[in-house]
Write a structure and sequence with these properties.
Layout lengths: L2 H6 L2 H5 L5 H13 L3 E5 L4 H11 L5 E4 L10 H13 L2 E8 L3 H9 L11 E5 L5 H10 L5 E5 L11 H12 L5 E5 L13 E4 L18 H7 L4 E4 L1 H4 L6 H30 L1
Parallel strand pairs: 1-2, 1-8, 2-3, 3-4, 4-5, 5-6, 6-7, 7-8
Helix pairs in contact: 4-5, 4-11, 6-7, 9-11
The structure holds 5-bromo-uridine-5'-monophosphate (5BU).
Keywords: Decarboxylase, Lyase, Pyrimidine biosynthesis
Family: Belongs to the OMP decarboxylase family.
Pfam family, one: OMPdecase
Length: about 280
């Protein structure tokens, strides 16, 4: 199936292209909730973390976390996160960006304070160590039905993950399709050998173009319609700086959810027309 052929399918239709349970569940959740929005909750206090997630929960398919940012982390927080995931029907993605040898990443994924594999349905890794990082993580995650995203590209100015590095990351994914469900990247790979991959894209904002620290923002329309990605990841664009404004946060989540979903509908419509 060509890259355009994949993009013409609905998210629900694409669930059949995967054997990995986390990929299937994400696609079906997107369809059920009519949302391709993931909110990235990058705050340091558990209270704010849970309040933001409860506010945006109705509008997201996926909550992205960096649990190592939380200064008052303890494992009961994970129970609260899982309760919110049930209440609002979203999946959980710890943006851990593993980057070490297979043995070390397997320990970091399964153990330590955070025990990420025990609760995070999706996680991600840099491809810089080579395929052994996938082997190490899949030894822990595959038996649990987890899915892995490889970092093919980054949203930051001057990123070194370009060209040959990105191409070889795509190949690494093709070689491990039971566990690698897709990429963090800025565009859908072309020249695929028929496989379907999820592309989740950070660096999304409707109001500003950057954050003064290298982050670069594109709109949901650019990401979903023009670049053929699947999920928009939005952090500060949704919750700003005052985390107590939960109504305003929910409104922003709704705005991004609507922008992402209408770009997806437009994409399906234009491609179905052009492929017929
Ligand atoms: P923001 O507040 O929307 O800028 O947050 C973006 C989030 O996505 C943040 O958690 C980053 O760690 C994450 N991110 C990113 O911004 N760009 C990348 O290329 C990757 C992750 Br990979």
């Amino acid at each position: 199936m060509s890259s355009k052929g994949v993009q013409a399918l609905s998210y629900a239709q694409r669930a059949d292209n995967y054997t990995n349970p986390a990929a299937k569940e994400l696609l079906l959740t997107m369809e059920r909730k009519k949302s391709n929005l993931s909110v990235s909750v990058d705050v340091t206090k558990s209270r704010d973390f849970l309040a933001i997630i409860d506010a945006v929960g109705p509008y997201v398919c996926l909550i992205k976390t960096h649990v190592d940012i939380l200064e008052d982390f303890d494992f009961t927080l994970i129970e609260s996160l899982q309760a919110l995931s049930k209440k609002h029907d979203f999946m959980i993605f710890e943006d851990r960006k593993f980057a070490d040898i297979g043995n070390t990443v397997a320990l970091q994924y399964s153990s330590g304070v955070h025990r990420i594999a025990s609760w995070s349905q999706i996680t991600n890794a840099h491809s810089v160590p080579g395929p052994s990082i996938v082997a190490g993580l899949s030894s822990v995650g595959l038996p649990l039905g987890r899915g892995l995203l490889l970092l093919a590209e980054m949203s930051t100015a001057g990123s070194l993950a370009v060209g040959q590095y990105t191409e070889e990351t795509y190949q690494m994914a093709r070689d491990h399709q039971d566990f690698v469900i897709g990429f963090i990247g800025q565009r859908r790979p072309t020249g695929e050998g028929g496989e379907d991959f999820l592309v989740l894209t950070p660096g999304v904002g409707l109001d500003v173009k950057g954050d003064g620290m290298g982050q670069q923002y594109r709109t949901p329309r650019e990401v979903i319609l023009e670049s053929g990605c699947d999920v928009i990841i939005v952090g500060r664009g949704v919750y700003g700086k005052d985390y107590s404004l939960t109504e305003a946060i929910a409104q922003q989540a709704e705005r991004y959810r609507d922008a992402g979903w209408s770009a997806y509908l437009e994409r399906c419509k234009s491609l179905i027309g052009s492929l017929n």
